[in-house]
Design goal:
The protein is α/β, with parallel strands linked by helices. It is about 20% helix and about 30% strand. A 9-stranded mixed sheet has the order 2-1-17-16-14-3-12-13-15. The protein has a 6-stranded antiparallel barrel with strand order 5-6-7-10-9-8. A two-stranded parallel ribbon has the order 4-11.
């Protein structure tokens, strides 16, 4: 399976640079995952396509302001770091730019010394382990000094940090937002619950791999990043009950999908679990538990586009994307959504 099989040509002006004022006013493409049939809607009307007894699965991870700008203590040169994974109370795996001269022992200062860091290890993939020292609470310092780690295709400054956060975000740890969830408002979620749909929550902390392009021409040679997930006993029970009663399991986003598909048994039953997953879903994958998928429009040749193609067919998805381009949908993180149903 070749990388170019998942290419499409996107006009730059369709890359959404800013979130809409009203989250639920995004456009929504409804697509039958089996036939490829398409219809166009407004996101808030998604409630009309949800049935009592269905289970809507949200990823409640919270994006941390993981981008920090500081200086090297030896040269005064400006450095940018992106916090990826917390290793201990003081140690983080980080992406450092520029990285060529950021060797072990290099000391960094952020916020005029409010936060200090020392590179204690350079990993095989080029990421650094940085040990931080500070007075006070790390999260509070990060909230003062850090910026939201927006994807590189977003060039506008984000004026309100909460707009790169779902309204149900709870557990700190992501370097990127689970963007399919950005369309939901608290009011819409309340209406969905009132209709008799169960809302279940999983946690998957979105990592660097979201931004990392696939470089291998044969996609089977691509190495997926690992991300930490949690499925609670309550969530497992909610999902199992919905399935037993004939309800559909509707994943909000590829992150929720990857979490459920990592944990579900072959017969689709769920259990409480936590750990790391590097599951790579591409066409040919047999879904064990996910019945429907709410997702944004993804980058060409990305693992996310491959997952969505696996959930339907590559031909159906590329046809839908072409229709979205013709209809002037907004693409990527702050863009519009699609709902793949059966």
């Amino acid at each position: 399976m070749n990388l170019h099989d998942f290419y499409y040509d996107l006009p730059k002006e369709l890359i959404a640079q800013d979130p809409l004022t009203d989250r639920a006013s995004s456009r929504l493409m409804i697509m039958n995952r089996e036939t490829g049939e398409i219809r166009h809607e407004v996101f808030r009307n998604i409630i009309d396509y949800l049935n009592p007894g269905d289970c809507l699965v949200l990823n409640d991870t919270k994006v941390i302001p993981a981008r920090l700008f500081g200086t090297r203590e030896d040269t005064g040169a400006v450095v940018e770091i992106l916090l990826l994974t917390r290793k201990s109370d003081t140690d983080w795996e980080c992406l450092v730019r520029p990285g060529k001269k950021a060797r072990t022992g290099c000391r960094l200062s952020f916020g005029d010394g409010m936060l200090l860091g020392e590179i204690i290890n350079v990993q095989d993939d080029g990421n650094r382990i940085i040990r931080f020292s500070f007075d006070g609470i790390f999260e509070e310092i990060l909230d003062q000094l850090g910026q939201m780690p927006l994807p590189p295709y977003i060039t506008h400054k984000l004026e309100d940090k909460t707009r790169y956060q779902t309204v149900y975000a709870e557990h700190d740890g992501s370097a990127a937002a689970p963007t399919a969830g950005l369309h939901f408002t608290k009011e819409l979620l309340a209406q969905i619950e009132e209709k008799g749909i169960t809302i279940a929550k999983v946690t998957l902390h979105v990592g660097l791999g979201t931004f990392r392009p696939v470089k291998e021409e044969n996609i089977l040679d691509h190495h997926m990043h690992s991300e930490y997930y949690v499925v609670t006993e309550e969530t497992a029970q909610q999902i199992n009950e919905a399935r037993a009663n004939g309800g559909r399991i509707i994943c909000v986003g590829t992150t929720s999908t990857r979490t459920l598909e990592s944990v579900a048994a072959e017969d689709g039953t769920m259990k409480a679990a936590s750990g790391w997953t590097d599951i790579f879903i591409y066409p040919g994958y047999r879904f064990k538990i996910t019945d429907c998928l709410i997702t944004n429009f993804h980058l060409p040749e990305s693992t996310l586009l491959m997952l969505v193609s696996a959930f339907s067919t590559r031909e159906n998805i590329l046809h839908a994307y072409q229709a979205a381009i013709e209809e002037r949908y907004r693409f990527f993180s702050f863009g519009d959504a699609m709902f793949l149903v059966k």
